[in-house]
Design goal:
By secondary structure, the protein is an alpha+beta fold. It has eight helices and eight strands, in the order ααββααααβββαβαββ.
Length: about 200
């Protein structure tokens, strides 16, 4: 009997962790469901998608180089980024999945930065999904989550001044430009701070 137990224990260790994460996610309640989208927490099995997203030219230009080249890099990013934020704050950046086929299109969620008084909204989508209204649909769902579930009265948004696509989306969602600021003392360029008040 002990040999069987040891054999099973050894076999379980060989199974990738991501399989267990995938099983867990199917029963995990989504953050929001809209007409076309499901907003859900990221899991380690999303690493391949993360590699693709963070290496897009628009991500690198407007958000910054993250040096995520492999799925192992992406798993580290997920563990110490979104997953850690879920654990510490109950929110973070979420995956945006199309309801019709389960395809991950982008991310949209909330961040808590030490340099800001308010949590801020962040979003990024694969370029092939630009122009379909997915980003505004996801942003409005995340804003509703912040208001109705987290009970916040105000959200911030940080955006590069040359990121006109994101600025237009934020204005459409109800954000108003406040001022420019540097997120860190050594930041090369200032960013726009925008606020949304409920």
């Amino acid at each position: 009997m002990r040999k069987i137990f040891l054999f099973l224990e050894a076999m379980i260790k060989l199974i990738p962790y991501s399989i267990f994460v995938d099983i867990k996610i199917t029963s995990m309640k989504p953050i929001a469901i809209t007409k076309r989208l499901k907003i859900r927490k990221f899991v380690l099995a999303d690493a391949k998608f993360i590699v693709k997203l963070v290496n897009q030219p628009d991500w690198i230009k407007h958000i910054g180089e993250r040096n995520i080249r492999t799925q192992a890099d992406a798993i580290k990013y997920l563990k110490f980024g979104p997953l850690a934020m879920y654990e510490n704050h109950g929110f973070g950046l979420f995956g945006v999945e199309r309801l019709s086929d389960g395809e991950l299109l982008g991310m949209c969620g909330l961040l808590k930065r030490d340099v800001l008084d308010d949590m801020d909204i962040g979003f990024a989508f694969l370029a092939e999904y630009y122009g379909h209204g997915y980003a505004i649909e996801a942003a409005q769902a995340v804003i509703n989550f912040a208001k109705n579930v987290l009970k916040v009265s105000r959200l911030a948004a940080v955006v590069n001044p040359d990121n006109t696509r994101s600025i237009k989306l934020l204005i459409k969602a109800g954000f108003v430009h406040q001022y420019q600021m540097r997120l860190t003392p050594d930041a090369v360029s200032p960013v726009n701070l925008m606020l949304f008040e409920f």
